[in-house]
Amino acid sequence: MPEHTGFLTFLLAHLPGLRENAKNLGHSFIGHEPMSYHSVEPIFSSLLIIIVFIAMAMAVRSKFRRLDESVVPDDRLSLRTFFEAFFGYFYDMAKDVMGAENAKRYFPLIGGAAGFIFFSNVSGLIPGFSPPTSSLNVTLGCALLVFLSFNIWGIKENGWSYIAHLAGPKWYLAPLIFPIEVISTCVRPITLSVRLMVNIAVDHLIASVFFGLVAIFLPLPVMMLGLIVIVVQTLVFCLLSSIYIGLATEHHHAEHH
Known about the structure:
With 257 residues, the protein is mostly helical. 72% of the residues lie in helices and 0% in strands.
């Protein structure tokens, strides 16, 4: 995504210490470029999203601790009802994909990814705010976390069978099938991260262009389309993550003859 100045970048640019010491953070994972005050914006915006998300979660949790409030559903849309509907939907999706037992076990990763990605995407609708998920470094970090998790869980659940099933059902097919399976597995975090980053970056760029042309009323249809992209990309990331975890943790039986 082309660099542009958001309000967070503008604030960071006026911090002399950060502007001078950003290079001490090293180089970016993607492109291996020296860090600058502009390139650390996704880090700060990600931290901001996490802090806001945790604050909302704590506010909702405090209501569940009060029994007189938690047993009676709200009669209108509130933060509590939104969280219930939002995470309930993704839990049902995970349960349909990987089964109830695995969904309960692995939902913290799916739910956390859904919350972070959704609120990060939504932040792009705020004028002057660049969503963290428009940075490939951020989306690749999310995808690598999913990649490491489902491989670790797959090995933990199946042991050697998790590696052996990549070689196919027959030993004489292993030289052909094993490299293909390894490559297809390693490509998963790349497709997850690139798909999310490109869609959110392009959506945010188009919305920014329309905001620059006419700031009132005209961007509303674009923002509505952007909201659809936000929801769909969150759903796609979490659905694919659930599928990968489900495939890795199902019990494999090596049948090499």
